[in-house]
Design goal:
The protein is mainly beta and 613 residues long. The chain is 5% helix and 59% strand. The strands form 5 sheets. The protein has a 22-stranded antiparallel β-barrel. β6 and β7 form a beta hairpin. The radius of gyration is 23 Å and the shape is globular.
Amino acid sequence: MPKPLLLAAAVAAALHPLRASLAAEALDEVVVTPNRTGETAGEALASVSVITRADIERAQTEDVVALLRREAGIDFGRTGGRGQQTSMFLRGTDSDHVLVMIDGVRVNPGTTGAYPWEQLPLSQVERIEIVRGPRAALYGSEAIGGVIQVFTRDNRGANARVHAGSFDTAGVTAGLGGGKTTRYSLQVSAEDSGGFSAKNANSDTAFATHDPDDDGFDNRSVHLGLVRALGAHVELGLDLLHGEMENDFDNGVSESRDSVIDARLGHQVSGNWHYDLALGITRNRLETDAAGAFARDTEIESERLSLEWINDWALASGALVTAGLAWREDRAENRDLGTGATQYDEAIDNSAAFARLDQPLGAWDVELAARVDDHSSAGTEATGQLSLGRRIGERLTGYASAGTAFKAPSLSELYDDSFDSNNPDLEAESSRNVELGLRYRPANGHHLELSVFDNRIEDKIAFVAGDAGYRLENIDEARIRGLETRYRGRAGGWHWRADLTLLDAEDADTDEDLLRRPERKLALGAGRDFTGGAFVDAELLAVSSHRDYIPAAGGTGDVDGYRLVSLSAGYPLGRHWELGARLENALDEDYELAAGYNAPERAAYLSLAYRGD
């Protein structure tokens, strides 16, 4: 399908993306995240994965880590079970090097820059698009390792689901949607879990020992989506996602409240020009009640306001031009509840202009993108990306790309003087990345992808020891090289998946491995569909050892690798009902995602779901 003909699809996809089933060819799914306009995943000159609502329901899990860690290039560090602080490493980059968006709105908090994955309820998710590799030329700061965009539920009828299982876990979600001229979608969810002890003896130090009590959580969320057609060529969309969570950790309790608002006007001006005007608002509040030698009771409130104007033009030559303007302001206040002192109350803003050209030239496809950001603290940052793609016969395509990216300092790095480690003179981190990729379709229902990359990151922000303690400075450099392969296949009632990641992530100065980045990861999956709608799936995740800081040892060391086997199944009970089950860590593997912190033992869950017409 020629890209100019996808402009109409881009409008709908940007507001409420298409629901995809497992029967669809993954390379033919329409995505909007790689280049901020509608195209199929197979046309994007980047490594792209899509997780649909059907994939989420088939996995029978509410754990976003269990779902995303199956994907090539994604690793996690988590300080305990679900609800505990969760860090993502995409292609070996830092957690704040991954730009995360919800319904087109940036949700990396301005305070730390790293999205809190523990707060995302899968019950509210319709679709997740994963783009590996830098995208700063289109998105600006944070997009060094890639971009992950979450789209909220797009209900076209009624749904409900209850689930319960190990660790005293129970949850319920229900939703409704419909309409024609005005479409609406509403989803509410609640979940509670007693959890298990977050820490173990590897976390003990001379200052503190772990508390072996259970560390659970409760989560409440609601999403409302509205789309109103204002004539034949204009649509107005609104999405509101609000969540509240209370989480017990080893030496305290935290309460968070998060809201994301996306208001968007899409206008098909003519047959070859479409634009979006988008307003984004995020609000976050985190209150922490902690105990311990260095603990503080704190309250952090932050807010982001963003505006974007994005245009697509289809030219007579077959080229597609995307260009736009963007502005955002981040403001945060950090208060010490024990002393009443304000650690900081500051704001930063960013203005940007960007443009992208996609020009087909016979069997070749050329993409060129550039962006200039004016950041109130980091100054002016210019980024660019050049990608070349080529069809090699009917079933093989290849691409090569080179791009630059940056990450501006966060508000906490600049202004949080709690421990006198902040530095208002910090500069932006920067990176240079090259990548080669191949896609091969040996037959209908099967596809194989291979990508290799080399990413060099300079001026990394790190703690430096000095006479007055530790201080943040731009001193570190890292080199990250890797290979990823992804296979998806389907024949008859069977389907298979395989994701392999080989990673070499090193500190360029010391040649030591970066923390919590395993060198090898293999994720295998196989499933069988039966007549009548029943299914069974099996997963294997094998991860090599990784280097980490071990508190009990007072330094770094190796954390053992692990192998996890999980099973899931579904059985229809009539036309609208389905009984589901999941067995996680079936072999009861003892492992850690972060040194000194426990991970779930064998766990079983049952669910009952209703899906209306």
